[in-house]
Amino acid sequence: SMASDFADAPLAPLPALLPTLAPAWQRLGQPGTWWSGAERLALAHEARAARDCALCAQRKQALSPYSIDQDHVATRELPTAAVDAVHRITSDTGRLTVRFYREAVAAGLLPEQVVELTGVVALVTLGDTLARACGATPLPLPRAVAGKPSRVRLAGARVDDAWVPMVHPDAAEGQLALMYQGSKSLTGIVFNVMRALSAVPEESFGFFSPFLVSYQMVGELPDE
User: Under a CB-based contact definition with an 8 Å cutoff, are residues 35 and 117 in contact?
Assistant: First the structure.
């Protein structure tokens, strides 16, 4: 169980956090909406690799990341465009522009694939940051589960306020609508970062379930 991963750590996570993080973490190895389980795990591995990537470090030091005319090496599971996107999102988020997104799509990634890989990067970052903060070793990634991604495109997702398609709060249905309502009841708004993953609702649920518990955005901080 995930609790055993923190058993010997100097600090323990909030008790409410692991029950929300554990199922989302297991989903990393399961077929998603636009990527298979093996592909999702490859995305997770690339997110970790990006933190010590020499090419990413070289680009980050350059005046423009586009001045370094090299690509990351594609893996058997992932196309070069996906590897590059994960590394850029992980290592140089502050300089992402619409050019980054348009080039990823022009290279063959579907908009929803960009959304899903962003969700994978976000979850891996959350889990790894938690482990580091508690003094635990990095959480082991799950095994890949066979199967194909569902490739179900959400009818209510539209391009309006952002580069990627998103679901407007007025058009949200089902669990996505409940999540939006929860955000609005807690803070008075629906977070744009929550909307950013809404074209692939499973990624929004998977990330924000543990995120909302760990971030403690409202109310007094617990003593534990």
Answer: yes
